[in-house]
Amino acid sequence: MFLSILKVPKSMSQASASATTSNQMSLLSWFLLLLLGCLWGGAFFSAKIAVSQIPALPLVFLRVFIASIALWAYAAVAGIAVRLTYRDIPIFLLLGLINNVLPFSLLFWSQQYIPSGLAAVLNAFTPIFTMLLAQIATSDERLSVAKVVAAILGLGGVAVLVGQDAFAGEAGVFLPQVLCLTAALSYAFAFMLAKRMQGYSTYTLAAGQLTGASVLLIPVLFISWNPGQSIALVELASVSSGVWVAVGALALVCTAACYLIYFKLIRDAGSTNASLVTLIVPLSAILLGYVFLGEKLQVNHWIGGALIFTALLLISGRIKLGRNRA
């Protein structure tokens, strides 16, 4: 089993075992979940602006690299202890791989061949995969009827939300869809791994993961660099100031700050509840488009949003299925 072969330090395992994860989300966890979904939904705006002048792969590297530098710099200024040793390198490289490098790359490549809405629907399988893995790898996040119903409702809500245009792509494009599901599975493994790393502080988890992702992306950039399709470092000077603002927002707000929220949410609410953010992201992207871009809300948006909200209430325990036991 993938998670069982990870070499987790004894102190970290003890801290994880002593941590309590409630099926009931607190008001703070609800706020953090919705905030994280909104910020990651807003990442689409920044990325859309930035990718107009910076190709996707260098943009992904700039996103995680600037975010990691910002976290290390702030830690130095604020006196935040980030205790990492050479023994921690493998696990943070693994976390950066399965939570950043692998899913980012798979989703980007797949969206060249399938609609982004379909990619969002397939990515919404993340909570389902997380529940199944939690059933195997944890003792405090057991599978229940409510969680299964909530996952199906949430997945259906995302499908209704993005509408029929999500499925209007070329028929028979099988591999990109499989890779999107692989990205969702990679995210689920990342949730499980992050839950097992509770011996590290939230700040250390965020800084270590983004540093690991940056290190892994450097050789990828060199291997995939194509003068006709990529961008050299010397050409970054010609990028407009507006694009750099978008890159800064993407790195500092939608990555550095968001991963601090992400790891705190996993610690406080559990990996299954935290994985629900993948249901909120497409909903928040549509709502932000309505508020800032004047896009109209259609009937399917309202229905999909209602299904997603019901799923959130179910899986967090706010709505009960059947009679409550004393």
Short account of what is shown:
By secondary structure, the chain is an all-alpha fold. 70% of the residues lie in helices and 0% in strands. It has one domain.
Structural description of this entry:
The chain has one domain (33-315). It has helices spanning 10-18, 27-50, 56-78, 89-110, 116-123, 126-137, 145-162, 174-196, 202-224, 241-269, 271-274, 277-292, 299-315. The protein is globular. It has 326 residues and is mainly α.
SSE topology string: HHHHHHHHHHHHH
- The average pLDDT value, as a whole number, equals 80
The rounded Rg comes to: 20 Å
Structural class: mainly alpha
Report how far apart the termini are: 37 Å
Describe the sheet with the most strands.
none
* Total DSSP helices: 13
List the uncertain runs: 1-22
Strand content: under 5%
Number of structural domains: 1
Specify the overall morphology: globular
Topology record:
Blueprint: H1 10-18, H2 27-50, H3 56-78, H4 89-110, H5 116-123, H6 126-137, H7 145-162, H8 174-196, H9 202-224, H10 241-269, H11 271-274, H12 277-292, H13 299-315
Helix pairs in contact: 2-10, 2-12, 3-4, 3-9, 3-10, 4-8, 4-9, 5-7, 5-8, 6-8, 7-13, 9-10, 12-13
Protein traits:
single chain, mainly alpha, 13 helices, 70% helix, 0% strand, disordered N terminus
